[in-house]
User: Fold this.
Amino acid sequence: MRPTEPLPLHHSWPLYDLREHLAPVVLDQRIAGNEAALAERGLGLWRCNLADNSLGWTQGVYEMFGLEPGSHVPRLLSVSLYANDSREAMERLRAYAIRHQRGFTLDVDIHRPDGTDCAMRLIAAPIVRNDQTIALHGVKQWLPKGSMPSRGQEPTLFFLP
Assistant:
């Protein structure tokens, strides 16, 4: 895990910046709508419904977590795969995002079930309906070993080849 303190303010951003943070995926609809193309680029899209904590993942997210594509993954299982310090930071930022209706970006470490480790960049934004946060969604990006951490407002340093 590679956060820089203070997490909520350093890694949090307002929803009007969403397009900027998701720009590499949003700008090319051929890629954004193609799970295999996203996975080839180390990207996956995800969603978490806050009413029941159900998760929706594209192929790339399953691959990052080392789980069978299309399988049912309870949120508790996915959270248990985060390294301890990554999980704590992610949960703190998640609560902040839900409460304050802000997005966040955080680089985290995952301990996959096969015993290998994976680093990924988590980009999350709330979905708001009638002034209530009803879900979170975003992008998870695989990070090669030795990648520089996200710092301040530079989380969009992932570019599609």
Remarks:
- The helical segments are 7-10, 18-26, 29-32, 35-40, 59-65, 75-80, 84-100.
- Residues 84-100 form the longest helix (17 residues).
